[in-house]
Amino acid sequence: MRDRRDLTLLHVAAAVGPFAVAALLGTVRESVEPAPAALVLVLSVVAVSAAGDRVSGVVAAVSAALGFDVFLTVPYLSLAIAGRSDVELVVVLVLVGLAVSEVALRGRRAQGVSARREGYLSGVAALLDLPDGVGRAERGAALARAVAEVVGVERARWHDGPPDRRDAVVDAEGVLTLEGRVLDPARDGLPTDRVTAVPAREGGTVLGHVALTAAARVVRPGAEQLRVAALLVRVATRGGAPGDRAVPEGGGPPGAALR
Description:
There is one protein chain. The chain is an alpha+beta fold. It has 2 domains: 4-112, no CATH class; 136-248, no CATH class. Helix content is 54%, strand content 12%. The chain contains 7 helices and 7 strands. It has helices at 4-26, 34-51, 54-72, 84-128, 136-151, 185-188, 223-236, and strands at residues 155-160, 168-170, 176-178, 181-182, 196-202, 205-213, 247-248. Strands 1, 2, 3, 4, 5, 6 and 7 form a 7-stranded mixed sheet that branches. It is elongated, with a radius of gyration of 26 Å. It starts with a helix and ends in an 11-residue tail after the last strand.
């Protein structure tokens, strides 16, 4: 998810960009037919939508229609439209702009989902490719790297035993809780003032946990990412690996909020 400042800049670009393109086309309107000019404005809407969100697409489509009205229809430099065909073209411009912006947005989201799932598979592959003779520390580090890649945090470490009582915890279903409260990391991000732990459980014991740190920037993983992270930890620690020391749940000593 984008930073609010980035989104604000994109929204400004969506409002100004197509309108500015229409103004440029207006300087050569005597030699440019309305239909090709409208197509150029649609392309400007697509360019903004490909980089922004749905709001950016809507704003860009409206901006393109206003610019077309002001600079490319009679009477010029006015919101009034004299010809019926120009009215129809403006309406079509808005509808096409909205449609292509939605297509661009869905395509970008699908590409993002594909990239995330590729990251999931690469994390699993990295764990499966470890040689049999690799020790506990190396296996724990490999698991932590795989979980970090899935969730998108900059730092992750494997620790034996249960997480600290003050840590946020991801359960087996990918639900994030903190002191009994369910959090929404996709909206609010992972806690930046404490560790997010993904525990490995076997029966009534905690074998260990992957401690995720997101202190440098806000990380907003989706529910699917957290479920995959929990699944990675569960599969990788089946049978006691990477740690072979089980500790009763709740028996871990309180530690620092950030490790």
